[in-house]
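Worked example 3 (structure in, sequence out).
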């Protein structure tokens, strides 16, 4: 694959539903392990994880040596943050908490270099020497970089879902993503994405995205919930996170062992 071919775009072109997960641990070692585990894509979360761009740089390097495709969720829809993420080699970006078409348009513009004749008025600042251009060794990087970007717009409130079609119609918006956690909170059911009202909104978003031919994704906490989302028509799905899976398994081990350890102490076995 060409260095400027977008791997996430290729994943969505496949017939299968790509499976991802979230990187919350903030370490290259865990990220690399998750990339080797069999996931199709992994979200480097810069919104809720206390990492800086040096950390993100190393995590992208780690995931880059695995079969998984990295996706960078920015902390905010901000021109400087977008530029820095692109310069360290991110090609697929997720923009949190986009509420309307104007905000989506601003996000997309920040991923593009200004170029004559292009439909999108790019606002990305130019630098010749960074990881994205392989430190200047990709000679046509500046003229081809715009086509390497894949923009995922995250819808996290009823107000954003109400404008799904308008947001999806913005030139350069490649895919949508429903954030079920914030959506449940905004609907008055914080922490309960299984609530019937939240599930109805999630199902409706998938139906409407399908109707206009725009790929849409989501994340769920369990295989059962993810299967439900696939049945609604979601095109790409994620399950839990590295930290979530680690804590869940740790709790399962502790729950299984604590009673027997207490019994052994009572009987003098230890």
């Amino acid at each position: 694959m060409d260095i400027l071919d977008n791997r996430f775009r290729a994943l969505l072109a496949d017939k299968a539903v790509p499976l991802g997960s979230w990187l919350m641990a903030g370490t290259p070692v865990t990220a690399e392990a998750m990339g080797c585990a069999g996931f199709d894509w992994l979200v480097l979360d810069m919104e809720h994880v206390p990492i800086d761009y040096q950390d993100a740089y190393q995590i992208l390097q780690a995931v880059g040596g695995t079969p998984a495709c990295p996706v960078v969720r920015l902390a905010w829809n901000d021109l400087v943050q977008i530029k820095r993420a692109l310069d360290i080699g991110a090609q697929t970006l997720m923009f949190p908490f986009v509420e309307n078409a104007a905000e989506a348009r601003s996000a997309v513009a920040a991923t593009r270099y200004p170029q004559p004749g292009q439909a999108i008025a790019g606002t990305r600042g130019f630098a010749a020497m960074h990881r994205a251009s392989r430190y200047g060794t990709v000679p046509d990087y500046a003229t081809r970089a715009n086509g390497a970007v894949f923009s995922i717009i995250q819808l996290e409130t009823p107000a954003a879902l109400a404008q799904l079609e308008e947001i999806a119609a913005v030139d350069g918006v490649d895919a949508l993503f429903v954030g079920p956690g914030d959506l449940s909170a905004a609907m008055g059911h914080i922490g309960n994405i299984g609530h019937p009202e939240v599930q109805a909104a999630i199902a409706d978003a998938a139906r409407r995205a399908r109707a206009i031919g725009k790929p849409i994704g989501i994340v769920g906490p369990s295989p059962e919930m993810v299967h439900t989302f696939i049945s609604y028509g979601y095109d790409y799905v994620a399950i839990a996170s590295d930290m979530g899976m680690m804590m869940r398994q740790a709790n399962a081990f502790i729950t299984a062992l604590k009673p027997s350890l207490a019994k052994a102490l009572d009987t003098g076995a230890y």
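Notes: Residues 102 and 167 are 8 Å apart (CA to CA). The chain has one domain: 7-267.
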